[in-house]
Amino acid sequence: MSIGGSNHRIRGLFEMALSNDMLCNSVVLWHCYMGYELNIAHDPYAARHICFLRTRSKLIWLDGFLSLKSVLTGSFLI
Predict the structure, then answer these.
(1) Burial of 47 by CB count in 10 Å (0-12 exposed, 13-18 middle, 19+ buried)?
(2) Count of C-beta atoms within a 10 Å radius of residue 61
(3) Left if phi > 0, otherwise alpha if psi is -120 to 50, otherwise beta: which for 22?
(4) Which residues contact residue 71 at a Cβ distance below 8 angstroms, ignoring those fewer than 6 apart?
(5) What's the domain range around 16?
(6) Which of 16, 32, 36, 71 lies deepest, with the highest CB count within 10 Å?
(7) What is the pLDDT of residues 9-49, one digit of tens each?
């Protein structure tokens, strides 16, 4: 399996887990998904999308500001 295929598979597993009503509000799961995008897939823009556009958790948002400060632009924050 190629690296791109592995990334697609892992993202699919995260998405499947987050579609579960019992897990969709799991701060740990959202944090792991964001961490995967940042540290393993090396896609900070995907992590930013997950953190700020997909979650409604203030805890994840606060963590996102700390973790994603290198990719946050002024226009995004306005």
Answers:
(1) buried
(2) 12
(3) alpha
(4) 44, 45, 47, 48
(5) 3-77
(6) 36
(7) 999 999 999 999 998 888 889 889 988 998 899 888 888 88
**Amino acid identity at 74:** G
Q: What is the pTM of this model?
A: 0.76
Q: Are 38 and 46 in contact (CB under 8 A)?
A: no
Number of neighbouring beta carbons within 10 Å of residue 60: 19
- Torsion angle (degrees, nearest 10) of CA 50, 53, 55, 56: 160
Domain count, the chain: 1
Write out the two tokens for 63: 């963590």
